[in-house]
Automatic annotation (TrEMBL), chains A, B:
Residues 47-66 bind DNA. It comes from Sediminihabitans luteus. Residues 25-84 form the HTH tetR-type domain. Keywords: DNA-binding, Transcription, Transcription regulation. It holds the Pfam family TetR_N. Transmembrane segments: none annotated. Gene3D superfamilies: Tetracycline Repressor, domain 2. This is TetR family transcriptional regulator. It comes from the Bacteria. Residues 1-22 are annotated as: Disordered. The keyword Transcription regulation applies. SUPFAM superfamilies: Homeodomain-like, Tetracyclin repressor-like, C-terminal domain. Residues 10-22 have a biased composition (Basic and acidic residues).
Length: 220, 220
DNA sequence: ATCGGAACGGAACATCCGTTCCGATTCACT
DNA sequence: AGTGAATCGGAACGGATGTTCCGTTCCGAT
């Protein structure tokens, strides 16, 4: 019995686990991957049975991991925010002008479908998500501060503005991926030009959205 | 009997119609208005019974006008495109620099909720919509041409780009209307600055989206 | 005043989907 | 091998929602 490790959340690497639990763990990630794909393709309205089929398991197995559909969506959401936070941190570490735009561009070409939470999800924000959100927030602040100093984005730009940008540049059209990406990059160029213009004109933005508005209020 | 006028689509003004049909017509617009309000508030997932209740009629009456929910949504969509076309035409007639941004700004503060078609609506595009779309297209081209001449938007900008802009500036957050509008205007400023910068830098955009991509491919 | 039919409202129906439940299956341990 | 517990898959349940159907209401013509 694994009473030696008191880690209540079973530790990361599932490589070596008592036989049966490995399968469970494998199923777990399979479900996550499948859910991401299905929800990306069909939106959050997709049926749980579709997710189960895509993952090659029964619906029962899905519900064993995630007590409800909303929980599954939320897990996906948290995961997405964590990834975004990692990316932001990495870009911030490069310390080069244009970090904001670079982050957004990367995020666009990376993020698979909607990592957002459906409206009306009034569930209290789970700790994991809150933590990931904080990390993302901090990393974005760094990013923005760097670019403000570099003079490529106007002062007063907030981390929430960047999220807004990201939301707007999310695939919203049933277009082939490549085409959608091209559109978004074209659009991002525009915004980049705008931010640089405002920055060099000495514009100071005001009344930007607050970060707190963003946590847990996304939808698709 | 009204056999004198062969107009198969009963003419516009419903003011004077044989008694009972007036009520029908009144109900018809009531349904449209109600549907717009309900769908705007709850998204296209709202129940038909809600629309009926909001309109103060029974579900049966809704289904008499619109054989299916999709038909109702489509009617709304067509209506929205028609309004957008009218607005675009009006702005174009003013012939003043900044027409594109002005159009988008107006459209943002005007358009109530989603006037877009749900994904996967594979129904053939109805003639009304096709016509409205053509009118919108033409008006936007005029708008863009004016602004390109005025040097406030870069050459190569297409009518479809403007639609893209519009789509991005659509309310996507469950924020109070005023707040959302403020955000969008802030964002529009950015894009405006970007377009002006690109224009005066002599940038010529390429590979813009084609208009045809846009007709009938919107969703919410 | 009476009649016919157009329009109405809402109960009833069918379907879809989230969720629950349970018998079958599989693995660890003896 | 045999046993038991954990896990699995999917049928069954319940609620919500799109759609149909029909008895009722109301207006205009006779």
């Amino acid at each position: 019995m694994p009473s030696s490790t008191p880690a209540s959340p079973p530790d990361r690497d599932a490589a070596a686990l008592p036989g049966r639990q490995r399968e469970a763990r494998a199923n777990d990630t399979a479900i996550l991957v499948a859910a991401r794909a299905v929800f990306a393709a069909q939106g959050h309205g997709a049926a749980m049975s579709d997710v189960a089929r895509e993952a090659g398991v029964g619906v029962g197995s899905v519900y064993r991991r995630y007590p409800t559909k909303e929980a599954l969506v939320e897990a996906l959401h948290t995961h997405g925010v964590q990834e975004a936070a990692r990316l932001a941190r990495r870009v911030a570490d490069e310390v080069a002008p244009g970090a904001v735009v670079r982050f957004v561009a990367c995020q666009i070409s990376t993020a698979t479908g909607p990592l957002l939470r459906p409206t009306g999800a009034t569930t209290p924000i789970p700790p994991d998500l809150a933590r990931a959100s904080d990390e993302l927030h901090e990393a974005l602040e760094t990013l923005v501060a760097q670019d403000v100093r570099a003079g490529v984005v106007p002062a007063g730009l907030t981390a929430a503005d960047v999220m807004q940008l990201l939301l707007h540049l999310r695939p919203t059209l049933p277009l082939p991926r490549a085409q959608a990406d091209a559109l978004h990059l074209r659009y991002l160029d525009l915004v980049d030009a705008g931010m640089r213009a405002q920055a060099s004109a000495g514009v100071v933005l005001e009344g930007g959205p607050a970060w707190d508005e963003w946590v847990g209020t996304w939808h698709d």
